[in-house]
């Protein structure tokens, strides 16, 4: 019989202040791409070629993430290739 495991969430820390706006934008883009890549891998999309922009954006809607840009979709595919 399978047992349920509990997931402990990591305590969030505030981002460092005083960095250029581009750093915050790229940081948040990487986080979004990572969340989407994990969701796609969990759903069975293991090949980056099958992770089309449409599939990535559909997954974003399912998981409640704002619609990703083309750059973010490209980053998602790069994360999937690395896994």
The secondary structure category is mainly alpha
Let me know the largest β-sheet: none
N-to-C series of helices and strands: HHH
Q: Give the beta-strand count.
A: 0
Q: Extract low-pLDDT stretches.
A: none
Q: Strand percentage, roughly? A: under 5%
Enumerate how many helices there are, as a single number. Answer: 3
Rg is 15 Å
Helical content, roughly? 55-70%
State the end-to-end CA separation. Answer: 30 Å
The gross shape turns out to be: globular
Q: What's the overall average pLDDT, rounded?
A: 90
Task: Give a quick rundown of the structure.
The protein is mainly alpha-helical.
Q: What does this molecule look like?
A:
There is one protein chain. The chain is mainly alpha-helical and 83 residues long. It is built from three helices and no strands.
Entry keywords:
83 residues, mainly alpha
List the helices and strands and how they pair.
Elements: H1 21-43, H2 53-63, H3 70-82
Helix pairs in contact: 1-2, 1-3
